[in-house]
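Per reviewer request, we include the raw input and output of the structure prediction for the construct analysed in the revised manuscript.
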Amino acid sequence: MNYRIDWKHLLIFIFVCGGLILITRSFMMSLGIMLLILVVDYVFANLEVRRRRKKNKPEKESER
């Protein structure tokens, strides 16, 4: 499997993680918040992919 890494996205997550650790002063709480942020990011990315697939679907299927 070949994974493409979006380096800008990764840098933003690292920056947010560091800021959360400074704000909360708790690594475990920051880890929980980051996991929630990653889940929300995954859900939004998945919705966007579905929307694009639906938009690019050929018109022939709807004529039947």
